């Protein structure tokens, strides 16, 4: 049973470009969480999604960031018009239910030049 | 609001020595508590978790943690550290009352092991 998959593992963008980060949850998991880890900090919750629904986006910046988890395919975290401050590691986690253990992917390390 | 404090940013221990990493949380109800380990450039691996029941929790790789409600603590321990334990350790708290289980993480403790 494959774990949580994220791609790309590393992503380099120039200021103003768009970044798309993908997360495929573990088989049988319908809950996805995105976290951001800034350099030398802990992970910060961004958004919690179930299939086709955003349940909690209280940690998402109000502008430029969006997330989706369509009926088919991976969850996508989209960052428009990236700035240097967006450089971070973005982790996705999935769980079977809303209060079950979260399994983390290897992360996508975004560098904005 | 939930919060997690890991007072020690860095800890260095000798191989074979015992280890205790501190974690204090702030949460109004009974929390879910977790310890994760992160190796450089890698994702997070769950070491152990506390949901309810026995307050002494056993995890993988010989780690254990004790939930102390009166002290709002969930310290991680290992009796004998191995060089491969060098990594960053994160304590996290999740809510039982709200829908979903978003985790609030501490800032992490970097463990160095000297031979």
Give a verbal description of the structure.
The complex is a heterodimer of chains A (113) and B (115). Chain A is mainly β and 113 residues long. Chain A contains no helices and 11 strands. In chain A, strands 2, 4, 5, 6, 9, 10 and 11 form a 7-stranded mixed beta sheet that branches. A 4-stranded antiparallel beta sheet of chain A has the order 1-3-8-7, with no helix packed on it. The termini of chain A are far apart. Chain B contains no helices and 12 strands. Chain B has strands at residues 3-5, 10-14, 19-21, 24-26, 32-38, 44-50, 56-58, 64-68, 73-78, 87-94, 103-105, 109-114. Chain B is 0% helix and 51% strand. By secondary structure, chain B is mainly β. In chain B, a hairpin with a 4-residue loop joins strand 8 (64-68) and strand 9. Chain B is globular and about 40 Å long. The mean pLDDT of chain B is 90.
Task: Indicate the proportion of strand residues of chain B.
Answer: over 45%
Strand content of chain A: over 45%
Helix content of chain A: under 10%
Largest sheet of chain B: 6 strands, mixed
Helix-and-strand structural type of chain B: mainly beta
Distance between the termini of chain B: 41 Å
Shape of chain B: globular
- Sheet with the most strands, sense and barrel status of chain A: 7 strands, mixed
Return Rg of chain B in Å: 14 Å
Which segments of chain B are poorly predicted (pLDDT under 50) over 5 or more consecutive residues? none
Total number of helical segments of chain B?
A: 0
* Oligomeric state of the chains in view: heterodimer
Estimate the helix proportion of chain B, in percent: under 10%
């Amino acid at each position: 049973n494959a774990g949580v998959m994220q791609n790309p593992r590393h992503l380099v963008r120039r200021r103003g470009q768009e970044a798309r980060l993908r997360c495929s949850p573990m088989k049988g998991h319908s809950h996805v969480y995105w976290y951001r880890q800034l350099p030398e900090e802990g992970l910060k919750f961004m958004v919690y999604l179930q299939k086709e629904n955003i349940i909690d986006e209280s940690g998402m910046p109000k502008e430029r960031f969006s997330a989706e988890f369509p009926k088919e395919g991976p969850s996508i975290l989209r960052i428009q018009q990236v700035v240097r401050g967006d450089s971070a590691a973005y982790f996705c986690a999935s769980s079977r239910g809303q209060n079950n253990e979260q399994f983390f992917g290897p992360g996508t390390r975004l560098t904005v030049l | 609001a939930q919060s997690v404090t890991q007072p020690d940013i860095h800890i260095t221990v000798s191989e074979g020595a015992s280890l205790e990493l501190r974690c204090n949380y702030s949460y109004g109800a009974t929390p879910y508590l977790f310890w994760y380990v992160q190796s450089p450039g890698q994702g997070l691996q769950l070491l152990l978790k506390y949901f309810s029941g026995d307050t002494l929790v056993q995890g993988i790789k010989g780690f254990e943690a004790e939930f102390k409600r009166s002290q709002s603590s969930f310290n991680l321990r290992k009796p004998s550290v191995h060089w491969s334990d060098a990594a960053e350790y994160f304590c996290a708290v999740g809510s039982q009352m709200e829908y979903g289980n978003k985790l609030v993480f501490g800032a992490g403790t970097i463990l160095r092991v000297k031979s």
